[in-house]
Design brief:
There is one protein chain. The chain is an alpha+beta fold. It has helices at about 5-50, 60-70, 125-130, 185-195, and strands spanning about 85-95, 100-105, 110-120, 135-140, 150-155, 165-170, 175-180. A 7-stranded antiparallel β-sheet has the order 1-2-3-7-6-5-4. A hairpin with a 2-residue loop joins strand 6 (about 165-170) and strand 7 (about 175-180). It starts with 6 loop residues before the first helix and ends in a 6-residue tail after the last helix.
C-alpha cells in the first residue's frame, strides 16, 4: 500500500490548515477585542464616571457669618437670597485698608457679585477692592430716594476683572461695596441689602 498523499488529500489538508489558522486568528481577534473593550470600560469608570473632585462646593455663607459674628467689629451684612444664588466665598480678612467681610455670589444665569463690607476703612479701600478707573455717578435704588449710592461703571476699562460694575455706600456697619460682572446682578444684590438692612443708612 502506498503512503503517498493524493492531490485531493493534499488539497484537503491545506484547506483544513487554512481553516484552523483562520479559527485561531478569529479567537485571537476576539480576545484582543474583549481586552480593548474592558480597557475602555475601566477608563470610563476610573476617569470619566468618577466625580470631579476639583469642582468647588457651594459655601453656606450664612453659617460662616454666624460663626464669625462674635468676633466681628460690627454686625455682618448677610443678604437673604433664594436658590438662584449660591456662594463660592465667605470670609473675614485683614487687608491693607482694614478688616473686611466678603461674600462671593454666583447666580444660575452666570452673574458674579461680590459684597465687601469694610470696617473703619483706611486708605483707598474702594480702589483696592474693585480696581482703578471707571465712570462714577450718584444714584438711588428702588424703595428709597434718600439712600445715595455711588455707581461705578468699569465696563470700559481694559481689564475690569470681576468688577465691571460696582455700587458703594457708607453705612453704620462700614463701607459697603457691591461689585460684579453685570450691572443687573449688582443692582439686585445692592437692592436686597438696602431692603434687608433699613437701619444702617446714615
Amino acid at each position: 500500500m502506498s503512503n503517498q498523499e493524493t492531490p485531493e488529500e493534499a488539497r484537503a489538508r491545506k484547506e483544513e490548515a487554512k481553516r484552523l489558522r483562520r479559527q485561531r486568528q478569529n479567537i485571537r481577534n476576539l480576545v484582543a477585542s474583549i481586552g480593548a473593550s474592558l480597557g475602555i470600560v475601566v477608563f470610563l469608570v476610573l476617569v470619566v464616571a468618577r466625580p470631579d473632585e476639583t469642582i468647588p462646593q457651594p459655601i453656606d455663607y450664612e453659617a460662616v457669618a454666624s460663626q464669625a459674628a462674635p468676633s466681628a467689629p460690627a454686625d455682618l451684612i448677610v443678604p437673604d437670597l433664594d436658590d438662584t444664588w449660591s456662594s463660592n466665598r465667605a470670609t473675614i480678612s485683614d487687608e491693607t485698608f482694614g478688616q473686611m467681610w466678603a461674600i462671593g455670589l454666583i447666580s444660575t444665569t452666570g452673574d458674579y457679585v461680590e459684597i465687601a463690607q469694610v470696617f473703619s476703612p483706611s486708605g483707598d479701600a474702594l480702589t483696592e477692592i474693585i480696581g482703578p478707573g471707571g465712570d462714577q455717578s450718584e444714584t438711588t435704588l428702588a424703595g428709597s430716594d434718600t439712600i445715595r449710592w455711588t455707581l461705578i461703571d468699569r465696563s470700559g476699562v481694559s481689564d475690569p476683572g470681576n468688577a465691571s460694575y460696582a455700587l458703594t455706600a457708607d453705612t453704620t456697619m462700614g463701607l459697603v461695596v457691591v461689585s460684579g460682572t453685570t450691572e443687573s446682578g449688582v443692582l439686585f444684590i445692592a437692592s436686597t441689602i438696602q431692603r434687608g438692612y433699613p437701619a444702617i443708612w446714615p
